[in-house]
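Sequence only, no structure available. Ideas?
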Amino acid sequence: MATRLDSTDPHADAARRPEQSLWAAVILHAVRDAFDKGDAFRIELDRVEALRFLLTPRGAWAKSREHACYSAGVDPERLHEWALKVMDGKVDYGQPKEVQASRDLWAAINSPPRKAQPTQTRPLEGAPEEPSEPVSIPLPSVVETVGIFDVREDGTLYCPNDRAFVGPSLPRENSQQGRVLRALTMKRGGTINALRKAHPKWEQLAVEVCRRLDLELTYRHDGHEVAAVVDAETKVFVRRRLPRAA
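Reply:
I predicted one. C-alpha cells follow.
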C-alpha cells in the first residue's frame, strides 16, 4: 500500500505543495534566526533553538530536522552539512557579525563544564554573594539548558558561577545590566543586598533587561511567591515570561 502521494499525479502534487511550502518556511526561519539579523522580536532563545535544529548531529533535534526536511522535500543531510560549512566559514551566507555570534554561542553551549576546584577562592570585591538558604526550601529541578542558562521546572533561570557569561543578546557582564542579570541568576536568586551592590537602581535595570530578553521578574519570601519586595530577606529571580490569561 502506498504511503506517499504519487508524484506522477498532478492532483497529488497540488495537495503536497502547501504542506511543503509550510515546512520550507519553518526551515528558512531557522536559518535566518541562526545566521541573519532577524526581526526585532528575535531573542537569544530563538537563536539557540535554530542552531540546535540545524547543527545537532543526533537525538531529538536531529529527528526534528529530518521530519521538517522530508516534509519540505529537502535532504536533511545536505541541510546539516551546509549549516556546518557556514559555521566553519567554508560557505559565505548571512551577516558575518551574526554568524560569528552564532559560532561563539554554539561554542559556549557545547563547552564542557569546568571542574570544581578543591580550594576555595576569595570572591571579587563587589561581586554578588551566593546567599545561604535553609535546606528545608528545595529548589525546582533543572529541566533543560538554554544558552548559558539552566532552566528549572518553574521557568526560573540559573547561570552557574563557572559558566562564561556571554551571548549575542546578553548585556556585557561588567555592564550595569550585566551585573544585575548575573545577580538575578545566582543559584538561589538575587538577594536584595547583592542586587543593590550590582546597582542602586537594580529594579529599573532588571525590568529593562527582562523586556529585552522576554523574561519577567518573580519575587519570593519565606519560600512563597510574592508580588514585590517585602524586606531584605526577599529573593528575586528571572524566569521565562508566562502566558497571560485571555
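Residues 1-15, 132-136 have pLDDT under 50 and may be disordered.
Hope that gets you unstuck.
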